[in-house]
Amino acid sequence: MTIDCFKKIIESTGEDISRPGLIDTPKRASDSFSFLTRGYHQNLEEIINNALFPSESREMVVVKDIELYSLCEHHLLPFIGKCHVAYIPNGRVLGLSKVARVVDMFARRLQIQENLVTQIAKTIEDVTGASGVAVIIEAKHMCMMMRGVEKQNSIMKTSAMLGCFRDQQATRNEFLFLLKD
Fold it and tell me: From the candidates 72, 83, 111, 164, which is the catalytic residue?
């Protein structure tokens, strides 16, 4: 059914769906859209896969520059950027790759960046029981670059600060300092 939907979209532009370059495009577009929105079909328990490990560390864990690709829920155009995640362990740490997988699970849904940053932070907090979580996303939005105001150099930054990152300025400052190159 999705293939037929993409066929109708292409035909609505006035294109000839039977021309050689477009014959298989509805299937490819359907497959691409399924891949780009695969976060709807992912399960947090499977993503984490028991990769929570006991740790006495109470020091900040930072995973910086996690690439992210998402689709704007308003225009179905991509936004592309990077995500920085930090947390203060409270008895257990999360496997490193799992942080990136959590980012991907939520990014690979129809989204707005303002919600994405909060979803990631709350999930890391819930999964780890951390005493604080901080998430910053920096992204370029094709809906702002390719249409509308057509501003090529604009970058949107959003943040979510939970627990000690919200309550303790020194903790927040340490995170922001660690993000500097």
Answer: 72
Q: Is the pLDDT of residue 56 over 90?
A: yes
Tokens coding 12:
């609505």
Antiparallel, parallel or unpaired: β 52-54 and 156-163: unpaired
Domains detected in the chain: 2-36 (no CATH), 51-179 (3.30.1130.10)
Residues 6+ apart with CB under 8 A from 159: 117, 134, 135, 136, 137
Between the CA of residue 119 and those of 23, 27, 95, 102, 151, what are the distances in Å? 39, 31, 19, 9, 27
pTM for the whole thing? 0.95
- Catalytic choice (83, 84, 119, 141): 141
